[in-house]
Amino acid sequence: MNNKDFEETLKKTQRFSSAVMNAGRILDYQSDAVVSKEVLRRDKGTITVFAIWKDQEISEHTTPYEAMVYVIEGEMEITISGKSQVLSDDELIIMPPDEPHALKALQNSKFLLVMINPLKS
Questions:
Q1: What span, in angstroms and rounded, lies between the C-alpha atoms of 83 and 25?
Q2: Is 90 a domain residue?
């Protein structure tokens, strides 16, 4: 999917909440970087695709959102409240709100982050 097609598809999701996308092709890797593209934003949460270069990290932080990380490709170490787990292709992990968490790419990796605001009803 080229960038123009993706932007058109993204517009459709914002209006109709229905579109077919290949999550692994939304973003390209950038050398020594973490890049992301938000594909959906609603009052109750967001869906974002990330491409992260090997050995790059997302430093420890907390968020009030419940979250799910789904690994599209690659291998990543995810640490939640001091406990580390390695995830690879087609695996996911649920992260509770308000718990410190961090991520490190063990290989070039792409993942989908779904964040849900538990405070919105």
A1: 31
A2: yes
**What single string gives the DSSP state of each residue in 96-113?**
-TT--EEEEESSSEEEEE
pTM of the entire predicted model: 0.82
**Does any domain span residue 19?**
no
Would you write out the chain's pLDDT as a tens digit for each of its 121 residues?
A: 555 665 665 565 555 556 778 888 889 999 999 999 999 888 899 999 999 999 999 999 999 999 999 999 999 999 999 999 999 999 999 999 999 999 999 999 999 999 998 875 5
Q: In the structure encoding, which two tokens stand for residue 63, read together?
A: 């968020």
Q: How many domains does the chain have?
A: 1
